[in-house]
From TrEMBL, chains A, B:
UniProt-recorded name of the protein: TetR family transcriptional regulator
Domain (HTH tetR-type): residue spans on this chain: 15-75
Domain of life: Bacteria
Signal peptide bounds: none
Length: 209, 209
DNA sequence: ATTTTTGCACTGACCAGTCAGTTCAAATCA
DNA sequence: TGATTTGAACTGACTGGTCAGTGCAAAAAT
């Protein structure tokens, strides 16, 4: 119903408010979980009245779902970009994998709270946003699976590997190592962590190099 | 676990009730999270009156904490057992690691709900049971770290590996791969999944074997 | 005889969602 | 130009419901 005002593009104010709400919600939910986080808390942390939350989002769950979509969208884009970049530079699939590990670490470094929250919700069942989560998860994992499959086709990886399981294992490796890094040894550098994971990934663990 | 008559130390009946409550709580909390799960639900699922919950546990949080301790205790024991078994058989540290991966998979296969719940809570902050979780986590990770350290000392692993981070990454690999297995391809056999992870662990992914 | 469980009514705190009213910048008017 | 109108955005007190935890007398189990 845009009767009078000739709006060029969406309201900036509204978008800014939504962004503030995302940022408030992500940290609170990462710390406490979805159910333990109240809408009042989110509003207060965002510096906004409770009614504003409901003006901008249909419900607490919807706010959370859109936050999920928003965050995983960023991750997926980042992984794709990393893979394509190596491609452009003529690197092999091992390099692509390594670049994606780094991209994952960079993402987690920048958005640790989102990562926490994502991991905590990913394997729950019977929740309202379950289907959203699945869709969004698949988009991200598919990028890794794609690179693995191309690597197998190119003869760069053994054709005996199980693409789906290996992709999951790789994601888990990065995810858990990174969360451990952020939680228990935050002083370490990204390069340092990346090096440790590269070593593990390339089987340079057993055998004294 | 059917003991017949009065055990020395604690009443068997009480223990049985507590066990029923653990089992009810673990699935409900895995599905819905701690806050979204009500004490009434837990009591009902356990086939017990609400008063009984409070006769056996001081509070909902305490029930959860003891559940956590109980579950991780089982996992830690299982990992230790696997490592010691390989030791006894004269296997190397690589074998020990592999045996622990398998023990992890067996555990997750048997207690998927507990695993879900554990992962969901592990990186949360500011929760009542935070300290319990840390203690219990450390016990489990320490087993893996121990094997890695011994492997480095024995010259079986590169001394350039970062023990703490590598341990975390390994745990993550198994955890996420196993949850993926249970959630998305439950028809696969444990051996199958184990083989895929072994391959990844031993660097038999890049290079066509 | 003692421990454990039951059943159920009750309380008080807490919380998601609502809604009538306010604000204010831009649009329209004079 | 300044005055007035419009409506999207925001506010916060309020409502209806939920839930952790309590209290206790009677029943059951050991």
């Amino acid at each position: 119903m845009e009767s009078s005002s000739a709006r060029a593009g969406g309201s900036t104010r509204r978008e800014a408010t939504r962004q503030k709400l995302y940022e408030a919600a992500v940290t609170l939910i990462a710390e406490q979980g979805f159910s333990a986080t109240t809408v009042d808390e989110i509003a207060e942390r965002a510096g906004v009245a409770k009614g504003t939350v409901y003006y901008n989002f249909a419900s607490k769950s919807v706010l959370f779902e859109e936050l999920l979509r928003h965050g995983v969208g960023l991750l997926t884009a980042s992984l794709k970009e990393a893979a394509e970049q190596t491609e452009r530079e003529g690197g092999g699939k091992v390099d692509a994998l390594d670049a994606m590990v780094r991209a994952g670490l960079v993402f987690i470094d920048r958005y640790p709270a989102f990562t926490q929250l994502y991991v905590a919700e990913l394997w729950r069942t019977n929740r309202a946003w379950q289907s959203t989560l699945m869709v969004v998860r698949q988009e991200a994992v598919a990028v890794v699976e794609g690179v693995l499959r191309e690597g197998v086709a190119a003869g760069e990886f053994s054709d005996e590997i199980d693409v789906q399981l290996t992709a999951a294992a790789l994601v888990g490796m990065v995810l858990v190592a990174a969360l451990d890094w952020k939680s228990f040894q935050p002083e370490r550098s990204l390069d340092d962590v990346h090096a440790a994971l590269s070593r593990l990934l390339q089987g340079r663990v057993s055998g004294t190099v």
